[in-house]
Amino acid sequence: MDSREVNILTDRMIPVPKECRFSDGKEYLLEDKCPVTLQAAETDGVPETAETLCRAFWNIRPALTVKQTTASGLKKKEAYRIRISGRKLEIAAKGAAGIRNAFLTLRQLAEVRRGTEKTEGYFLVPCEIRDEPALEFRGIHLCIFPETPLWDIEKMLRIAAYHKFNYAVIETWGVFPFASHPEFCWADKKVSRNEIKRLVKLGKELGITLIPQFNLLGHASGSRSMTGKHAILDANPALQALFEPDGWTWCLSNPHTRRIQTDLVLELYELFDCPPFFHIGCDEAENIATCRDCRKADLKELVRDHIVYFRDLFRQRGARVIMWHDMLLERGDERWKGYIVCGLPQLKLGTLYKELPKDIIIADWQYGYKAKQEDPEPEWPTAKFFKKEKFDVLVCPWTNEDGMRSLGTMAQKENLFGMLETTWHIFHDFHFLAVTVTAANAAWNPEKATYVTAATRLAATQHMRQVVWDMGIVEYEKTGWSQYQVDPGHHPHPLH
Predict the structure, then answer these.
(1) What string of DSSP letters covers 38-100?
(2) Which of 219, 268, 319, 412 could covalently link to 212 via disulfide, CB atoms 3.0 to 4.6 Å apart?
């Protein structure tokens, strides 16, 4: 097989496997009763996973042989090995998670049989693949705004799982209908609790765990600051005492704040089926402590007690909290020059990290890269700092592809906890390709992470098409990366 063919096949796989070798020879046909051998150290759920995915991906019922082995050389839970010849398909893994990842790769490699008008089956070329993730936690952060339809979130979850993300942080922006406090939601923009439950269940089926986020410090408006909206106060001015006067941050000196927040986060946590993590936000709270009581209090003590209370609340339930890093480091500190930190010196929170429990996971969001091409590779000192202070650290890039690759490489080298790729309001159209291609590679295999190319763009588009097939949707607005092809501001063109 020449290099061109190898490149064509390699470009179909997102993320790119660690080791992959293709060869010429008779193709393996994916059809009913085709022989598939599964080797696993832990066989629970292995045949069920394989059967379910074979039906879903290719509508076949293979002849499975399951062997319990030591899965020699496969040390990580999600690692797998594939061997394909004209007569054999052999998959080895530690357990069901690795088997799932192997089948995701096989779906990307499988090609429809040629020379027919309609699809009459699929085949795989001979190859050997050995693969494992660089990072244990590979997360994507998705926001549900009032303008976000839940079918869109489902598409994003499905494509993220397809590209081997294993966690999704879900941040609802004033749209979750809290039963305990209904006023903490736009009355006319509620999402369906049952639909959220369905997405949580779907995530488990896809191999991606959904983690709820609720902001417990800043972003208290439940709305983007540039809009001037407040999901709670615009309709409920009686609740002003729970917030600082401008509404952007919570009033931590008011005991009712913690009482209500406790109700809210536990309601979210339970609806998400009690996952192993909960994201408490805590970023961009520069305007904290401006009310009469908070500005006279010991702010570091207020914030410390607030964070530790919720850390303890979730620890009692077997979950760890994740929080953004930026308020724990001070602007103006030369150590962080050129990197994102939001702690103002006058807030005196620069030593707060010393008083926080080390089982809190720090999500370090850094969205840039080099200012000039000739500049040296970023050192990402903030993430290394929190690791040195004994915290588990998630690196969190956004849309900068160089930043994604650099952070993924550093996270693997420094043995950090993982990556949480952010999307915010930009996860439609071409922007999301960087997330689902470059970030997926950066989290799984940073050595192979590349820019989005014409080939990988088309491969990712085919993967999205397969996701649309899985969802059974055909409506124009729901297919592809974008809801529309032409911005309403540019079409229709005036006739005069």
Answers:
(1) EEESS-TTHHHHHHHHHHHHH----EEEEEE---TT--STT-EEEEE-SS-EEEEESSHHHHH
(2) 268
Spatial contact of 132 and 78, defined as CB atoms under 8 Å apart: yes
What is the rounded CA–CA span in Å between residue 126 and residue 320?
A: 43
User: Which position has the token pair 């309001």?
Assistant: 425
Please tell me the pTM assigned to this model: 0.96
Location of structure tokens 């080939």: 455
Tokens standing for 368?
A: 């840039």
Residue 371 corresponds to which tokens in the numbers above?
């200012």
User: Cα torsion for 142, 144, 145, 150, to the nearest 10°?
Assistant: 130
Query: Distance between CA atoms of 241 and 254, rounded to whole angstroms?
Result: 8
The answer to whether the CB of 119 falls within 8 A of the CB of 145 is no
CB 363 within 8 A of CB 396: yes
The secondary element (H helix, E strand) that includes residue 201 is helix 193-206
Which amino acid is present at 64? L
Nearest to 325 by CA among 222, 203, 401, 407: 407
Q: Residue 180 burial by CB count (10 A; 0-12/13-18/19+): exposed, middle or buried? A: exposed
Nearest Cα residue to 190 out of 180, 175, 174: 175
d(CA 279, CA 281): 6
What are the pLDDT digits (tens) for 303-332?
999 999 999 999 999 999 999 999 999 999
The DSSP output letter for 438 is: I
Rounded Cα distance, 75 and 394, in Å: 22
Q: What is the CA radius of gyration of the chain?
A: 24
Are the C-beta atoms of 394 and 416 separated by less than 8 Å? Answer: yes
pLDDT digits 0-9 by tens, 32-58: 999 999 999 999 999 999 999 999 999
Judged on CB neighbours under 10 Å (0-12, 13-18, 19+), 254 is middle
